[in-house]
Specification:
The protein is built from 14 helices and 7 strands. It is mainly alpha-helical. Helix 7 packs antiparallel against helix 9.
């Protein structure tokens, strides 16, 4: 009897293409919507220079070489870009982000990254050129620390006799105590919170590194207690389990439960509360600075912020760490 052997590894070309489309769609869900939007915008810029780089699902069609990328970065440095009708140079941080996107796009397509030390050296050298020979450092958001928030509450910045005042106070406290990004707070639902006798469990969806669970404790000072502020807001707004935690407030101090605030709304609240030099990201920086001053461990801060490693903890807290590690050389 003659056996017929079927090679199960051979798949029709059309089926392979369909499978790749399905795989690409699932791979896209590995990042948050905001990250995907950022990647797509960056890839459009790359594709304007390399038209055959990726297809409509952003899978690599023609891999790039290190020489290709070096030429692309040189082009961006030479031409710059126009914003609001004004010619501007690219920031080194923007170019660095582009390199990361190009690298990630190749890796997702199971290809070797064309980004090597020589390519990254171009951006490093460009940064030094802009900074008169000194290493370029991306401008860091100004820290919003616990003392800033206490002062704002003590001077009655939030009119808690209004819906807007109650909501904004809860937003500020939760953003800080939860070491949260603007869009994470904006998209929370009441169902993402579980209160117990000691605090509240918060499940944050669509973070940069997946779903994260946080816990915020009750504090003795009712005026600055995040848990109390959030509870008061939910009760006053009569929010249900399926409601957005922070819905929009329209004319006449009325609550529109059909929509939630945008991340930019938190930016506006921050600037009106703390000053124009601050931004929503200042809560994350301020959390690290405050936690460092209170001698919290890197592990505890990393868990609270949802970071995989200590790099951002060290970056945000380096000024505090330097002070903590200083000593009197003559003492």
């Amino acid at each position: 009897m003659q056996l017929t052997v079927k090679n199960t590894n051979v798949v029709a070309a059309t089926q392979t293409a369909a499978n790749l489309q399905t795989a690409a769609a699932h791979a896209a869900n590995a990042h948050t919507q905001n990250t995907n939007r950022s990647y797509k915008n960056d890839l459009k810029l790359v594709s304007a220079y390399f038209p055959n780089f990726v297809n409509e699902t952003f899978q690599v069609v023609t891999p790039l070489t290190a020489t290709d990328v070096a030429a692309f970065i040189g082009h961006l440095i030479t031409t710059g870009h126009t914003k609001h009708g004004i010619q501007q140079v690219y920031k080194p941080s923007t170019l660095q982000h582009l390199l990361n996107v190009i690298s990630s796009t190749h890796k997702v397509s199971n290809l070797d990254s064309p980004i090597n030390k020589a390519v990254r050296a171009i951006v490093t050298g460009y940064g030094k050129t802009l900074n008169e020979g000194e290493p370029y450092e991306q401008k860091q958001a100004k820290a919003i620390e616990d003392t800033h928030i206490v002062k704002a509450i003590n001077r009655d910045t939030f009119d808690t006799t209004t819906n807007r005042g109650l909501r904004d106070k809860a937003i500020v406290l939760l953003s800080f105590a939860g070491c949260a990004r603007r869009n994470e707070v904006a998209q929370l639902k009441v169902s993402n919170l579980i209160f117990d006798g000691e605090g509240v469990h918060v499940t944050v969806l669509n973070t940069k590194t997946g779903t994260k669970k946080k816990y915020i404790k009750l504090t003795t000072n009712v005026e600055t207690c995040t848990v109390t502020a959030v509870k008061n807001w939910i009760a006053a707004a009569k929010l249900t389990k399926d409601s957005y935690l922070f819905p929009s407030i329209i004319k006449g101090d009325k609550i529109d439960t059909t929509t939630h605030i945008a991340g930019e709304t938190i930016n506006r609240i921050v600037k009106s509360t703390f000053g124009s030099e601050y931004s929503g990201h200042g809560f994350r920086v301020g959390f690290v600075v405050t936690a460092k001053k209170k001698k919290a461990s890197n592990e505890a801060i990393r868990i609270a912020g949802g970071w995989e490693g200590d790099a951002m903890v060290r970056h945000y807290g380096k000024s505090v760490t330097a002070k903590q590690n200083s000593f009197d050389i003559f003492g």
